[in-house]
Design goal:
Blueprint (H helix, E strand, L loop, with lengths): L20 H5 L12 H5 L34 E9 L10 E5 L25 E5 L5 E7 L4 E2 L7 E2 L2 E7 L6 E7 L10 H4 L4 H5 L4 E2 L10 E4 L2 E2 L11
Parallel strand pairs: 1-10, 1-11
Antiparallel strand pairs: 1-4, 2-3, 2-7, 5-6, 7-8, 9-10
């Protein structure tokens, strides 16, 4: 979808003053469309063959090891599952779904994240999977914590998980965020509120799902992603 075709009532604008960094990085001149080559649009990005056993289980893939699994990540265990759909509700098969997130204390494993929250040595904070024949994906993880950021005075990001979706080529990509129901920080968050349309904004909030709960282990959340059309999941600012 080109810049001109994008429904700006659904997707956030490139420049949203309340989200201060967009003022510096957002384009201020009209975008120039660049046609993709055939190879860019047809070469597969990833498939099931590239996935490792625990790529979609963040409670395992980041454990500290000493010849064997010896650590457990701290925090509330969750299972996040959903379907990748087009505007007609048809499942999208073979979509590479990548996620990254903060740990339960609200800290990323990244040199730029230096705020006063502990690093979990058993939690890497990233995972990936490929959507199946029903367009479904699934992740096991730890519920991420809120964290401070320098956008404005006393600014805190709500609990959230970043999503990146690749289609059958690197030229087709969507980046978005998933939030959790009942989070009081949502009303104060300029990234979440950059999406003007209420229904589109609400679509970024996962639904608690008893179906995806794992008894005695994890709470379940459902988060469907729609790639196109008036009900499309908003892309990230």
């Amino acid at each position: 979808m080109s810049h001109n075709e994008r429904d700006w009532s659904v997707h956030p604008p490139y420049i949203y003053p309340e989200y201060k960094s967009t003022i510096l990085r957002g384009p201020k001149k009209p975008l120039i469309a660049i046609e993709h080559s055939l190879s860019e649009l047809t070469i597969p990005a990833f498939g099931h063959g590239q996935m490792q056993e625990f790529d979609n289980d963040l409670t395992i893939n980041g454990r500290a090891t000493n010849g064997q699994m010896v650590g457990e990540p701290l925090g509330e265990r969750i299972q996040v599952s959903g379907r990748i759909l087009d505007e007609y509700g048809r499942p999208q098969v073979g979509i590479l779904v990548e996620i990254w997130q903060a740990n339960a204390a609200g800290r990323y494993i990244h040199k730029s994240d230096q705020h006063h929250a502990p690093i979990d040595p058993n939690f890497f904070g990233g995972g990936r999977c490929v959507s199946d024949e029903n367009g479904r994906y699934s992740f096991m993880s730890i519920k991420p914590g809120a964290y401070p950021w320098g956008n404005h005075h006393n600014a805190w990001r709500p609990n959230h998980i970043h999503f990146s979706l690749f289609g059958m080529s690197f030229a087709s990509r969507l980046v978005t965020q998933m939030y959790f129901p009942g989070d009081p920080l949502l009303a104060l968050d300029p990234i979440y509120n950059a999406t003007n349309d209420q229904a589109a904004r609400t679509s970024l909030i996962a639904k608690f799902s008893e179906e995806y709960c794992i008894p005695d282990l994890a709470l379940g959340y459902e988060f469907d992603i729609i790639l196109r059309g008036p009900m499309a999941t908003p892309m990230e600012v």
